[in-house]
Amino acid sequence: MAMAHQSTLRTRITIYAAIGSIIVFTVGAVLLYQDLTHQLSRSIDVSLRVRLDDLESAFAGGATLESSDGVSAQLLRADGTVVWPAGTKALLTGPELARAANHHITVERAVPGIGVDTRLAAVPLDGTGLPGPMIGVVTASTRPLLLARSHLARVLATTGPGLAIAVAFAAWLLAGVILSPVRRMAREAASISLAQTGQRLADPKGRDELAELGTTLNEMLTRIERAVAHERSFIDNAAHELRTPLAVLRGELELASLEAGDEVAVRASLVSALEEADRLARLTTDLLTLARADAGELDPQLVICDLEIAVREIIDHLPSRAGISLEVEGRSTVAFVEPAWIIQILSNLVANANRYAAYRIQISLRNEEDRAIVVVADDGPGFPDALLPQVFDRFTQGSEARTRAGSDAGSGLGLAITASLVRAQGGSIEASNGPPLGGAAVTIALPAGPGSSTSQRSGLSE
């Protein structure tokens, strides 16, 4: 119900356009009103100034000046006596006379005979040719100014709402045209489901923001399709891998139940069942690790470790193969890692190399600036060329299952887990074929960590 009361984007654009036009119109109207008032007022002041100059010039030449067009003039003495026109009442009050005797003044007030809207200008005159100081006074009606302002206010008040309505209507139409591609994309996107992940929005035309939005949405749909396909493949492979040991486990238990009287057969069946249970436990743990890696929940407890000690420990527990030599190059290579994880990583890589090596395995250790580099290489067949770019993907297996590693042989999760653990510690991992022994080579780079000197080693180095 709440969505029903929410305005659409088109409505909001229309409202914003109307409000914006009202604000702009109001500001413009105020500026126009003030400018008109200033210009008309200035015009009246100029007329009064010209009238004062004419008054002074006329008396200086011995002539008189006639009043016309609503403008009245007087010539006063400082005591308020009207010199011209004779017999009229002084236009200035006492305080105004005192001020006008010293400088130019302008006053707006009602003046009998002129009107309630009158502006008076008074100034001391020295060049009239008359004895004593004189004060010239002229008046002008401000009625035209008031009428012009009132007319302008009525025009603005009438046209303002009409302009706002016109702008709002134009904005409504324009927003409809602009947003029509968005509505089309929304309808197309709503029709796409997990069962139609291959469907895309219609190719956007042009190079504007809407075209960029359509392209971005299509790219997002492509990423979603890949993620869905990846997850579906992961589930299918996981179900397949779990089904095999479960079937074997069930078969062994059934065999044990049928051979209840044969102690040797029962014992063999139980041992096999135990191995399959262990395999299930390892597979479940591996799947949980990968799920935690996807969720970003792997939380390594990093300490400074000596990778040489880790490698030596792994070699000591590595099942030996006749005719295989194992070489370790480099000494005292330190890294900032999780001790348990680095054991699992190196165990997987060394066991994988040991399984496929023809004669030699080489483990190279070195520190480069702030990274610890480990290369595990063998002289075996290497990774299948077609699968080399995906060797760290889950359940990736070649014809000889070369991408299986360590205790995960048969599940295709070994290198995937190894890569996840390396990256969770801030490291990187690469796989290649060729140097240094001509077979497979896996290179991992791990952070050396702060202050990673030999005197600060902990974790495995302890």
Give the helices and strands, then pairings:
Layout: H1 9-60, E1 72-77, E2 82-84, H2 94-100, E3 105-111, E4 115-125, E5 134-141, H3 143-190, H4 209-258, H5 263-294, E6 303-306, H6 307-316, E7 325-329, E8 334-337, H7 339-356, E9 360-368, E10 371-378, H8 414-424, E11 428-433, E12 440-447
Parallel strand pairs: 7-9
Antiparallel strand pairs: 1-2, 1-5, 3-4, 4-5, 6-8, 9-10, 10-12, 11-12
Q: How would you portray this structure in words?
A:
- This protein is of the alpha+beta class and 462 residues long.
- It folds into three domains: 1-57 and 135-191, no CATH class; 230-294, Signal transduction histidine kinase, dimerisation/phosphotransfer (DHp) domain (Helix Hairpins, Orthogonal Bundle), CATH 1.10.287.130; 303-461, Heat Shock Protein 90 (2-Layer Sandwich), CATH 3.30.565.10.
- Helix content is 49%, strand content 17%.
- It contains eight helices and twelve strands.
- The strands form three sheets. The chain has a five-stranded antiparallel sheet with strand order 2-1-5-4-3, with helices on both faces. The chain has a five-stranded mixed sheet with strand order 7-9-10-12-11, covered by helices on one side.
- A hairpin with a 4-residue loop joins strand 1 and strand 2 (82-84).
- The longest helix is centred in the N-terminal third of the chain and has 52 residues, at 9-60.
- It is elongated and about 150 Å long.
- The chain starts with 8 loop residues before the first helix and ends in a 15-residue tail after the last strand.
- 26% of the residues are buried.
